Amino acid sequence: xxxxxxxxxxxxxxxxxxxxxxxxxxxxxxxxxxxxxxxxxxxxxxxxxxxxxxxxxxxxxxxxxxxxxxxxxxxxxxxxxxxxxxxxxxxxxxxxxxxxxxxxxxxxxxxxxxxxxxxxxxxxxxxxxxxxxxxxxxxxxxxxxxxxxxxxxxxxxxxxxxxxxxxxxxxxxxxxxxxxxxxxxxxxxxxxxxxxxxxxxxxxxxxxxxxxxxxxxxxxxxxxxxxxxxxxxxxxxxxxxxxxxxxxxxxxxxx
Length: 255
What we know:
With 255 residues, the protein is mainly α.
């Protein structure tokens, strides 16, 4: 009887010894392995989601991350989507001239302008200004966050190239003009035209369009309806540049 008990105890010990590596492996699977898989899947989603959404945005009106943030905080948002045909060509010309005069000629990123800004940063130590194309701004508005950072700027580059490869120039412009911020809670050309000038976006004059375009770099600090002296000068310069711009609008407005 004693011998049987000893054999039973020995066999149980051996069984426990055989199970312990399995248990250890299981613990490791639940620990490091599980987190690795989760991180990998999250990264995969982050990589694949923008291209998938961009394909959807070829036909579905999108909202910006800033708009989503305001919705999440239960803040007021005014955005009235309008097709490009219902937005004044004056605004298209003014925005391209003001924000990205090479819009029709680059593939989402103006590499020459970007290189110049990098050289300024390296040689003079100043913060880079400009070189942000309308496509890069669209990428930021759709998928990234506000504020200035080199991380965000670095993410804009591949996103802009991707967007330019999937969408037409007309569609990118249409999206941009419908999600750009033009005041506290005011998004898109139609809401901006109604808020600042009391008229639909299709009826904007060249002067009003120039004021809206030159308000884009500082939408919370510039009033298109009552522009400051500096803002008036910027819009007057924009009007002059539009008149001498030549064929830089063809990819959106045609010849």
